[in-house]
């Protein structure tokens, strides 16, 4: 079969997409000539602009590439990448704006419209020199993709020697030289880039203009081509802390990177709108954008239009403007404002009156005088942003230092141009960071509680319930915003758990209570502490009582409220007092990499030399990095890989991308790597397959089966059902409603609601149940407790249920239930009378589940309202049922030893098996919050899910986050900030303990990773093993393999480090080897046991007793060898009533063995506690309902399969140490 031809590889784009020279057409100049001859003097004449020259990368000719031996036929199309409009044949029909066939114009660049955008106010001849000016453009293609342009206009005198753009032939003008004295013709250079480098490209064009003014007319094209070639060779910096610097002479140009993959490039002064508008007007404009109005900016400066518009869009991040965005409209484009859909456009101030009369309902924003008005006779009904958020935003804006001159007052004059520019950039970067933080805090305060009304499993947003929680005065704002495309995309991002700036702020501002609430199934209640601000809002309470009965708010009249200024014409500055909130944000540290000089003439040899210089400088920078600076190392890998690609060195590029893949997967260019592999020739692909690292990369990224069809990412709005529901549909509806997630609880609820009836639920019953639940929820949220009562409660207590007024032997009042107590709220003179406290229940998750059952029972009784309602509700009395069915579930020994039970699957619809456990001790790092410094218990669930508990309070610190998609086999803490997790998919995932995210992957294993062993020291090492017998040694700082060896036979299931040697369990034997793989000892199972099916399951070393304890699959005993002589027969420790051993760990001077055994005639999970010195079983603990266990001792332990966990007391520990030394 013939070999398939390699595919064409589109190279990673540099900064330049296109560069164009624009100026007057020949016909315009001829007209100017005739006017000048008749009048004898020059006059301000209008000219017709057109594109004179276009330059598109790459700029190396085919012949040059072939001469240099570069594989350009594979890498790029060999075309002539520039053209000039020829004028040496006057009779030829003028070019109409279409480029020659050998020029490929990037998508989104319309050369027909470009001239009028580069000269939006028209092109006029000047009688005297004018200053150069710059403005900016945003170009959008038919798919909505944006490209960005910077335009520099300048003037040149029209001379009699040659015309500016006549090519090699000279065109002699027919008018006398004296007649054209004082005639200056405008030209423009336009640079188009995929990234919004407004300031950087403006600086580049400023440098270019200094050269153009000094060169002769016929040299202009060559200067522009060289300028474009330089920009095209500069790679785009990857997201992160590395910025690029390039010497454009006389300026050092900085190209900043985006902060992270989810953030935009910020290369403009974000405080510009704050200089043009008062904070109240800024809020009005943001509201207009959030409600997707038709917005038009006006200014007498063309440059300010896109800059200010882009600043407002940056304020909205991570919300994104989804509609038309044309920040510069030329005179010929004014009819665009007649569009009926939402848009954001910009016009010159001269067209203000014309546009305002053109269409109704436009929001007209005058940048020059800071006004916001509307084009219709009546005011546009634009709501106000929520009051508290608006007040806080205003105070924070007023605290900002917006004037650089005030920072310069104490500094001496600078004599270094680039040094002064660097100080100005640093100041601007700090201010940009503060402005972004203020804007993000505004959005966060407005939309933070949206997450409380999302159902992630079914991608449902309960908008009506969310609206009920909003203050009456904010209802109009939220109703309009919730109906926008922008908000819908925001919901998609939340439901997809995108870790953008909004999600990061949510994570960093979470309290312990928020973390607990995020994992508890339902119901949510405000704490005593949070209820305090609500008490003053009587109107809010009244409103909620009016709307709580049904989710259909459109049928309910909202009470009239004092009007807040919603008219765009009538808003006055509010007096918010003198208080202010100082914004103190320290920008993250950044680094720079200086791009080497590019030598001319631009032939292939010079370009290849430039690429070689880039690679050499990047390699040198990498060699000088500190070992722990993996973030910067990843950016260097990215850049060097991109340069290798541009250089045509595909295999070297793939090696760098492989290193990047395991250093920071967030910026890994998967699509580019796929296209690179597809473009390899046959010999290149064969060579890549011979390199283990590349073979692994190709299998991971390229050769995997095609991705599954993209799941439906639509966001559904919760609606009450309209037809009868069977069990499965009922489960889905209840989960979507947010009442409860646990499938087993919903099954019991279904049984309760269908007692004595057909096993289906009609819409009316569901509606009644939903209303009963929501009414109880509203009543609990509106409880107003006097201070004398609050003093008896903890600040993190919740009032779950408040009864009606009853008479008791303790007085008359209402009985209140929290998660910690029952108490009587007495009437008359309100007081607190305690009824009972839940003292002996230490697990908040079980309290939560019991409270949920109580509230569900109450809602069932309220729904059915029949004599059998109490019996039906008893179906939800789950714990009573368990007690009656299993009165002796836990023997006395078990009960005395049991300390805690926890549920890693809390908040999930179904329980998940616990595969691996890891305890990490607490420590206080300066980068952490105090709560993050607590000890943690890491629980690996099925399919790569990880839940993290705070081991000081046994609350969930971080709910399920994904670490790959396969089962995790082992976990280890490599250093204080890293947890390593070995997966069945052969990848080692490195988790950041601060962000609880995985950004690094080690992919050197070829089979499932089964064990990890940490060797602390300098440098720290981690040994990893996989099922195929491979053992790798890793440098923790550099994440590089320092050594590797292979054990024969495979089946390597675990690894342990002791006394400088590695102990490896292979099933058939336990092998002791040196760190380099040299065999020292081997204990073979076949030489000690007659059972052919027996195999080593796990082992524990007790160096003090010089003992090796082993557990064997299929056997009911533990075997102990002497480390002095492994050839001696082992001692046997029999486990009574044990049918199979599943795991074993060491706990102080004890060995705890998990297995399956009989208890009260039933097969259950059991734990045998063995005295290591006496080799006798001290205790038998009935662990769990299932038959398999997972044990871990780092002062704590947990089990497997049923999804629940038990913590056990360890004998011999003092009461003071009990908090940290327990199971």
From TrEMBL:
Keyword Protease: no
GO biological process: regulation of Rab protein signal transduction
UniProt key word Plastid: no
Subunit field text: Forms oligomers. Interacts with 6 of the 7 known isoforms of 14-3-3 proteins.
Gene: DENND3
Ranges: WD repeats: 1002-1044
Subcellular location, record wording: Cytoplasm
GO MF assignments: guanyl-nucleotide exchange factor activity
SMART domains: dDENN (SM00801), DENN (SM00799), WD40 (SM00320)
Cellular compartments per GO CC: cytoplasmic vesicle
Top-rank taxon, per record: Eukaryota
A Pfam family recorded for this sequence: TPR_DENND3
InterPro entries hit by this protein: cDENN_dom (IPR001194), dDENN_dom (IPR005112), DENN_C (IPR043153), DENN_Domain_GEFs (IPR051696), Quinoprotein_ADH-like_sf (IPR011047), TPR_DENND3 (IPR057977), Tripartite_DENN (IPR037516), WD40/YVTN_repeat-like_dom_sf (IPR015943)
Record domain UDENN: where: 76-501
UniProt entry keywords in alphabetical sequence: Cytoplasm, Guanine-nucleotide releasing factor, Phosphoprotein, Repeat, WD repeat
Comp. bias intervals (Polar residues): 66-76
UniProt xrefs under Gene3D superfamilies: 3.30.450.200, 3.40.50.11500, YVTN repeat-like/Quinoprotein amine dehydrogenase
Region called Disordered, residue ranges: 62-101
Official protein name in the record: DENN domain-containing protein 3
Biased amino acid composition, Basic residues: 77-89
